[in-house]
Design brief:
Blueprint (H helix, E strand, L loop, with lengths): L34 E2 L4 E2 L2 H5 L7 H8 L1 H8 L2 H8 L4 H24 L12 H4 L2 H12 L11 H16 L4 H12 L2 H13 L19 H13 L5 H35 L26 H6 L4 H8 L13 H6 L4
Antiparallel strand pairs: 1-2
């Protein structure tokens, strides 16, 4: 992987502002001072020769979260989703979890938009998802959706961690932002189509606004820019290790949410009749794991108590006649660390 700073075409006139990568000072000496002519070496050469390049943060994240990725990929919830065995009510609960999660994440990103450990990764116009998720919530729950939803126990823990990181250790916010948004721009786009097909959602985007990145023209190019900006952050090796640890925590939080959704799905299976709606037809490349890239407004949290208490009460209603089709938006965004 290149260690030089990546600048997209639109940034060429701002190249002087593009941050330099950590370790870029390991270059040829500016003068000939310190040269031992008898040995043809620069003084102190043994130290230089033994110097090993510090891996880029994106490389460390990929390798350091592989085990967590594999475990997440093999949860029942994820496997069912990839097969199209998904329920509309679970999709709604997952969209709710996404709303609370991204509200927290983007609140903390706004708080730290000028912090040197995060500022280069601040792309609100291109990446922020809260507004899109609000539209999805209105589509699924109606205009009074805020009165119907709560933050589940598992999501609440995730939200609290994001707020803690944003307020106490902003450099670790990188782990949450990277694992979320890189996934959204990758496998999330594949899972959007699965959701639309399985749930018979409109092809015009209603219910899946979360996946629409209207201000990202070329997703692949943008991801390259994002990784380069992340790799250029001035973080010590110890700080990088902590970012990787935090990314693993993010995977764990997500798996806890998957488990919670599995429990909700079990209740749906018991309480709601099956209507025979078709699942995903199995076409397409299902071998590519969309998890490998790889948020909450406190005001919102203060005004609502968590979705699973309310959701479970609704799901236990014997008069419930909701359509079961299938999909889980949360997995769609989390299942893809490219």
């Amino acid at each position: 992987m290149k260690r030089t700073c990546f600048c997209s075409e639109v940034e060429l006139d701002q190249r002087s502002e593009c941050p330099q990568p950590l370790g870029s000072m390991a270059t040829e000496p500016e003068t000939s001072e310190g040269v031992d002519e008898s040995e043809g070496k620069v003084s102190g050469a043994p130290e230089r020769e033994n110097h090993t390049r510090t891996p880029d943060l994106s490389e460390l994240l990929k390798e350091g979260t592989k085990e967590a990725h594999d475990r997440a990929e093999n949860t029942q919830f994820v496997k069912d989703f990839l097969k199209g065995n998904i329920k509309k009510e679970l999709f709604k609960l997952a969209t709710t979890a996404l709303y609370f999660t991204y509200s927290a994440l983007e609140e903390e990103m706004d708080r730290n938009k000028e912090h040197p450990a995060f500022a280069p990764l601040y792309f609100p116009t291109e990446l922020h998802r809260k507004e899109a998720l609000t539209k999805d919530m209105e589509y699924f729950f109606g205009e009074n959706w805020e009165e119907q939803v709560q933050c589940s126990e598992a999501v609440q823990k995730y939200v609290e961690r994001i707020h803690y990181v944003g307020q106490s250790e902003p450099e670790l916010l990188v782990a949450h932002a990277y694992t979320r948004y890189m996934g959204d721009l990758s496998g999330g786009q594949v899972l959007k189509k699965v959701a639309q097909r399985a749930l018979k959602l409109p092809s015009t985007g209603e219910g899946t606004q979360f996946y629409q990145f209207e201000n990202v023209g070329d997703a692949q190019q943008f991801k390259q820019l994002y990784r380069a900006r992340m790799n250029a952050l001035d973080l010590s090796p110890e700080a990088k290790e902590r970012v990787v640890e935090e990314a693993n925590k993010a995977f764990e939080f997500n798996m806890q949410i998957f488990s919670e959704l599995d429990q909700a799905g079990s209740l749906l299976a018991k309480e709601a009749p099956r209507d025979g709606l078709p699942a995903h037809n199995g076409k397409g490349d299902m071998r590519k794991c969309p998890y490998y890239a790889t948020e909450h407004d406190q005001g919102v949290l203060a005004g609502s108590s968590c979705p699973f208490q309310t959701a479970m009460a609704v799901l236990r209603n014997s008069n419930l006649q909701l359509v079961l089709a299938a999909s889980v938006a949360l997995a769609a965004s989390l299942l893809a660390w490219v």
